[in-house]
Design brief:
alpha/beta; 8 strands; 18% strand
Length: 163
Amino acid sequence: MSNGRKSVYRKSRSGFIFQIMTKAYLDIDGVLLTKKQQPPDHVSEFIAYVINNYDCYWLTTHCRNGENKAMEYLRGFLSKMDLKSLENVKPTNWDTLKTEAIDFTSNFVWLEDYPFEAEKKILFQNNKEESLILVKLDRKEELKSVIRILKQANTALGNHKYK
């Protein structure tokens, strides 16, 4: 029933079929790279999972104020295969708080290592605090754990892809 790899369709009570797109907002430092600017364990598996299951957007200091330098920054750290996978991640535009770029009317997950208190407050005010997934790369097997969390969230939301 899906016409795109990130498209999910559901049947409503009235019998109409509608499409659900779940967005993923991605930070770079602390999510795709460690504090020492190294790719963490399982980064390729993580990138593949997120790219294949979400409509992805950059939410990073490397993509703000109308400038998208995310891919340029990552070129020195990630494999060619991972970079190719990340080519279609969409830019966002924000100035002070990353939450300025989030579409609160959509289903989304925000993968972030260090959200500001003001950003957490905005998530709470929009009843979206559960959309924040804190990534702590100092924990062993962290990206594998995040993949498990994302899979559980997709199951809970009914975001099953149909072929």
